[in-house]
């Protein structure tokens, strides 16, 4: 090793943190191509007798370096948390699964029992998921509480592999009496789409232990949302649900509203840029009125919601004692609608709860209504083409209606009382009429 390389290594090692069972190489920007360039890290791992946390974020790891590190991990049976995000910058897609298998092998041989695994911001695609498949199925993950795979480009195939691995891990953990109880799941920006989301929904339902789910920007539409909604009902401790920038439309939001009836511990709901629309917002308002007692934050921004529906949502939130923030920005309220919403909140001393309305899209016109109809046609086309494999009809039958029946919110449809969801809407009609009256009086 050249003198300059040794000097650089000494400088880098001086910045690492050792103590409390943690070895921290975060953000050092090391390029470890081979065993020699990873020697400093390998030696520190070997010398750290009670290693519990290994932070390698922001470095880049080659196949040979990963093999050497994996070998060093074989004796680290106390290792619990691995923060390995942004670890393969500049690496070939084909290298990453091989490197991940080496790291995984070390953990499994050691008999480690992980509680946290973060591999976010590694663009490894479905092949990368194959690289951690055996690890996720193994006893090393029976104790896993946090799994973060944000921005990994898993795609539909990777989502399915991940779901199967989690379900197998749960099955095997039950056999030995230590059931997998995953609490935090993060997989935004992964192009999971409906099939990937539906596969993961089955895993979520099986585990029933989730407290936080973050799946923004995944190209999921109403079919995948309906599958996730059905799964969320079985996760009674859910506190945070972030599905930002997916496409609910009416059908997805109605299914999600029905699921939220059963979730009493939700504190944060982020449905920003989800095309919730008016009927979806009103459905959620009905649930808000009777449920979600500890809700703190609600984000329904950029959802094509009009003034009347926004006022109904605001009214439903006024008696929430823990409520801190509601975001209705980027909707279709119009200038007067924004003023009416602010007035409604300020009139109850809740003005500071309302986020900015600076990006409001203005009142919806006839062209917007036509787009709404076209969007519904797209929903129907997706369903008729069998785009998703989740049995949506069975799910909605369970909740008092069938997939081919009209929404209980349409005026021409007789109101059904089979579920709390629909009866709540009946109670909420006066607030809806008030919102419509305010909006119409200005036209």
From TrEMBL:
Transmembrane segments: none annotated. Keywords: GTPase activation, Leucine-rich repeat, Nucleus, Repeat. InterPro entries: Leu-rich_rpt (IPR001611), LRR_dom_sf (IPR032675), RanGap (IPR027038). Residues 351-388 are annotated as: Disordered. One of its GO terms (biological process) is nucleocytoplasmic transport. It is found in: Nucleus. The keyword Transmembrane does not apply. The keyword Nucleus applies. Gene3D superfamilies: Ribonuclease Inhibitor. Signal peptide: none annotated. It comes from the Eukaryota. GO terms for cellular component: cytosol; nucleus; perinuclear region of cytoplasm. Its main location: nucleus. One of its GO terms (molecular function) is GTPase activator activity. Residues 358-382 have a biased composition (Acidic residues). PANTHER family: RAN GTPASE-ACTIVATING PROTEIN 1. Belongs to the RNA1 family. This is Ran GTPase-activating protein 1. The lineage of its organism: Eukaryota, Metazoa, Chordata, Craniata, Vertebrata.
């Amino acid at each position: 090793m050249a003198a300059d390389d040794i000097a650089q290594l000494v400088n880098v090692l001086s910045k690492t943190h050792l103590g409390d069972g943690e070895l921290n190489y975060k953000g050092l920007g090391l390029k470890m191509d081979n065993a020699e360039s990873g020697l400093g890290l390998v030696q520190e791992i070997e010398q750290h007798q009670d290693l519990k946390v290994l932070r390698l974020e922001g470095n880049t790891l080659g196949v040979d370096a990963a093999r050497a590190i994996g070998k060093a991990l074989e004796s680290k049976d106390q290792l619990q948390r691995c923060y390995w995000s942004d670890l393969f910058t500049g690496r070939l897609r084909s290298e990453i699964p091989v490197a991940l298998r080496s790291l995984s092998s070390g953990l499994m041989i050691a008999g480690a029992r992980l509680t946290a695994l973060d591999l976010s911001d590694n663009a490894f695609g479905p092949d990368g998921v194959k690289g951690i498949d055996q690890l996720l199925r193994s006893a090393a993950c029976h104790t896993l509480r946090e799994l973060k795979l944000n921005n990994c480009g898993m795609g539909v195939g990777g989502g399915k592999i991940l779901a199967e691995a989690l379900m197998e891990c749960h099955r095997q953990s039950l056999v030995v009496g230590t059931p997998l109880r995953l609490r935090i799941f993060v997989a935004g920006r992964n192009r999971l789409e409906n099939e990937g989301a539906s596969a993961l929904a089955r895993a979520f339902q099986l585990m029933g232990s989730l407290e936080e789910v973050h799946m923004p920007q995944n190209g999921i539409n109403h079919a995948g949302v309906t599958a996730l909604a059905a799964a969320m009902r079985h996760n009674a401790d859910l506190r945070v649900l972030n599905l930002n920038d997916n496409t609910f439309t009416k059908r997805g939001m109605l299914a999600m509203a029905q699921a939220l009836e059963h979730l009493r511990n939700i504190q944060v709901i982020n449905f920003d840029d989800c095309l919730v629309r008016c009927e979806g917002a009103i459905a959620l308002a009905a649930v808000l009125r009777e449920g979600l007692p500890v809700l703190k934050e609600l984000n329904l921004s950029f959802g094509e919601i009009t003034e009347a529906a926004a006022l109904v949502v605001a009214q439903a939130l006024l008696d929430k004692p823990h409520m801190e923030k509601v975001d209705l920005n980027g909707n279709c309220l119009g200038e007067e609608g924004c003023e009416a919403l602010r007035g409604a909140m300020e009139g109850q001393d809740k003005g500071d709860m309302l986020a900015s309305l600076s990006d409001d899209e203005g009142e919806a016109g006839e062209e917007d209504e036509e787009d709404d109809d076209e969007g519904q046609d797209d929903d129907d086309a997706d369903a008729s083409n069998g785009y998703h494999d989740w049995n949506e009809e069975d799910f909605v039958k369970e909740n008092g209606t069938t997939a081919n029946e009209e929404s209980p919110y349409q005026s021409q449809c007789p109101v059904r009382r089979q579920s709390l969801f629909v009866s709540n809407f009946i109670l909420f009609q006066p607030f809806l009429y008030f919102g419509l009256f305010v909006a119409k009086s200005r036209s």
